[in-house]
Q: What sequence folds into this?
């Protein structure tokens, strides 16, 4: 279009005695070309504006909000401003003195005078409970009594709940009395703060998140490998068939997309359970005793099997799109020059399918590493992935900060793996169609 406009301008251009080109209406040709180009750019920008707004509103903004929530920490600052100021001179060893408890009483009284929707002690109780068990009960009970406390306030608070007499609670209040916190990421890495404020590893029976991340990556790699092993022969067979037959079989590959994900997952529950079709068939054929039925569901095996079936088309389609473009004459030429069929396939055909393998592998791996529904239904305890733990914190424990930290770490991990792939292989080699 811009070239057509430039051609039209050139046809209507005239040359001044000074050598400067002008259009038919007397404008300098160079400025007229710049105006035409600018008009085209504005038009193109307006055409993509709806898509840009959609990406910003439904993709970039939610991710940015999630990352912000993983470090946002306004509860302690908003609820206990006087207490935090009084704690500046506390050495962090014994229970604070009367001045700190007097400031704490002033904060409780000030919060009680606010409208109910603006009160900050409720969110404070939830926030401190993430760090120390029973903190929510201590804050809730004290908030109902603190208005009636009289000096000396230290004894009154210690009588209201035993937790006020533990220096650990005061250390947490002082440490988290900042608008930003790293506590969620510390917890997501199976670490915690000790009495000196140093970051140390949690007890072994409380380390769950790092193991979940490792399990998620290993399961995603296994699923990607299985989809490749199963999908490569399917894609190859589709690529060598005549178009009318390959199109018919491609419908079978795409058929799972037309079936609900819940239906497909529920079907695997029927097939894999101990009293299911597969176990009953093996028992009926005499290959297994009825007392030795295999547990194939509610564990890692069930998750891998179900997700491999669900994600298989995402591997087949990129492979097929690449294999279809490889001329059969290459294999014939290799054979005519003395190569065996296996050598011709390994040295001539297979290297040309690498862009499809890379595209399918990246696609399946990225989808599987964040999968949620299938592991939740068939995974049990050993087949859970990190996405299930993120959902648990979002829906049950309501620890949105920790869920945001886990989600951010998962996002950064995927980006790092993609960066490594780009450095080692090259993202420009991917072919999705």
A:
């Amino acid at each position: 279009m811009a070239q057509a406009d430039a051609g039209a301008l050139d046809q209507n251009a005239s040359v001044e005695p000074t050598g400067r080109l002008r259009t038919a209406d007397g404008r300098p040709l160079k400025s007229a070309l710049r105006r035409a180009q600018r008009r085209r750019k504005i038009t193109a920008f307006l055409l993509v504006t709806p898509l840009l707004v959609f990406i910003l509103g439904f993709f970039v903004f939610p991710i940015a909000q999630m990352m912000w929530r993983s470090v946002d920490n306004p509860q302690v600052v908003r609820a206990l401003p006087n207490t935090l100021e009084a704690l500046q001179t506390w050495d962090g060893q014994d229970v604070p003195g009367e001045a700190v408890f007097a400031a704490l009483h002033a904060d409780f009284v000030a919060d009680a005078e606010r409208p109910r929707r603006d009160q900050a002690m409720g969110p404070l109780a939830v926030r401190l409970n993430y760090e120390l068990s029973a903190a929510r009960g201590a804050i809730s009970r004290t908030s109902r009594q603190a208005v009636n406390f009289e000096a000396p306030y230290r004894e009154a608070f210690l009588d209201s709940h035993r937790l006020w007499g533990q220096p650990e609670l005061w250390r947490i209040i002082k440490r988290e009395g900042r608008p930003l916190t790293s506590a969620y990421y510390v917890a997501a890495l199976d670490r915690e703060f000790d009495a000196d404020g140093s970051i140390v590893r949690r007890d072994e029976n409380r380390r769950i998140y790092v193991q979940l991340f490792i399990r998620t990556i290993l399961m995603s790699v296994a699923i990607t490998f299985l989809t490749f092993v199963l999908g490569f022969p399917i894609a190859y067979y589709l690529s060598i068939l005549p178009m009318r037959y390959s199109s018919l079989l491609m419908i079978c590959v795409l058929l799972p997309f037309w079936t609900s994900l819940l239906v497909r997952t529920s079907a695997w529950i029927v097939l894999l359970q101990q009293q299911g079709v597969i176990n009953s068939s093996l028992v009926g054929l005499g290959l297994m005793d009825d007392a030795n039925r295999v547990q194939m569901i509610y564990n890692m095996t069930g998750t891998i099997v179900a997700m491999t079936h669900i994600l298989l088309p995402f591997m087949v389609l990129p492979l097929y799109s690449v294999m279809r473009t490889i001329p059969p004459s290459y294999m014939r030429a290799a054979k005519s020059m003395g190569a065996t069929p296996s050598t011709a396939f390994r040295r001539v055909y297979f290297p040309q399918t690498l862009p499809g393998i890379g595209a399918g592998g990246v696609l399946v791996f990225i989808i599987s590493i964040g999968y949620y529904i299938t592991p939740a239904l068939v995974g049990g305890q050993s087949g859970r992935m990190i996405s299930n733990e993120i959902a648990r914190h979002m829906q049950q424990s309501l620890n949105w900060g920790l869920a945001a930290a886990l989600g951010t770490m998962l996002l950064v991990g995927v980006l790092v793996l993609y960066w490594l792939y780009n450095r080692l292989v090259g993202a420009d080699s991917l072919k999705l169609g």
